[in-house]
UniProtKB/TrEMBL annotation:
Keywords tagged on the record: Signal
Name this polypeptide is given: PEP-CTERM sorting domain-containing protein
Record has Signal as a keyword: yes
InterPro entries noted in UniProt: SGNH_hydro_sf
Record's signal peptide: 1-20
């Protein structure tokens, strides 16, 4: 009888492990968050493949999925300031594993935009293609998502910057177009429109448009104090966007308040609710 019970427990544990979706997030500081409390948020419940102790957007995503009873085993492989070409050249042994069910790739912030705006779209296209081929060579069933990032305020508003005579909208459009092209070329599962949701937050009056002239009353700063990394609001919106696109469940159904990711990041119920409605 004891053997039977023990065997049953072992089978249940094995089944539980087998049911978990293994998700790998590959990127840089736009993935790990760069500022507290985002950078280490929920780090104890995800795996940092580089041993740096990051939580970031993947840590928030993990908490959101756990909160609705979904089983995702989340790993982050993020190195600040690096391109996807860097990850291809230096992290292939981590990325090229057969156990990943889902892989998310995030390119350097302005690499996807036109060369006339300081970008290097060919570098992005080639590295993404090679990385996607790598993960598919190990697991043909892997789902690949591209992390469409956002317009940088520090490259829009100060004099002499690449988008100074354009706008956040034009910057976002360039990013969207580039990510969509790479997604179509490689038949990915989806392009996760985080950058579009940043712009939506601005257009809907949830986030301030220009942090260089102060933050309007009743609005949040979607950017961190450096005006290009995500603030806690930006990281939360990013993770919520991934939650909806990867799980298929509406982000607006997520709970806010005590014990939630929003509360852990210091985001009020009202602001969290407004952000979730944008996804």
């Amino acid at each position: 009888m004891r053997t039977s019970v023990s065997t049953s427990i072992s089978l249940l544990v094995a089944a539980s492990l087998a049911s978990a979706q293994n998700v790998l997030f590959v990127g840089n500081s736009y993935t790990h968050g760069n500022i507290s409390p985002t950078v280490t948020y929920n780090a104890g419940n995800i795996t940092d493949a580089n041993g740096t102790g990051y939580g970031g957007v993947p840590g928030i995503f993990k908490q959101l999925t756990d909160s609705v009873g979904l089983d995702f085993a989340v790993t982050i492989e993020a190195v600040g300031g690096k391109t996807l070409q860097y990850h291809l050249e230096n992290k292939a042994s981590i990325i090229g594993q057969a156990n990943w069910d889902i892989v998310v790739f995030q390119e350097f912030s302005y690499a996807p935009v036109p060369e006339s705006r300081m970008g290097d779209p060919s570098l992005f296209q080639n590295a993404a293609k090679d990385l996607i081929s790598l993960v598919r060579s190990k697991n043909s069933a892997v789902k690949v998502y591209l992390y469409e990032t956002w317009a940088r305020a520090d490259l829009v508003y100060p004099d002499g910057t690449p988008y100074h005579n354009a706008s956040v909208k034009v910057f976002t459009t360039d990013l969207r177009t580039s990510y969509a092209n790479v997604g179509a070329q490689n038949s990915v599962a989806g392009v996760v429109p985080v950058g579009d949701n940043f712009l939506k937050a601005i257009n809907h009056g949830v986030a301030d448009r220009n942090p260089y002239d102060g933050i309007d009353a009743g609005k949040v700063n979607i950017w961190a104090p450096d005006s290009h990394h995500p603030s806690v609001y930006g990281s939360y919106l990013s993770a919520a966007t991934f939650f909806q696109h990867i799980t298929g469940k509406p982000a607006k159904s997520l709970a806010v308040g005590p014990g939630t990711a929003a509360a852990g990041l210091g985001i009020s119920c009202a602001d969290a609710t407004r952000l979730l409605k944008l996804v």
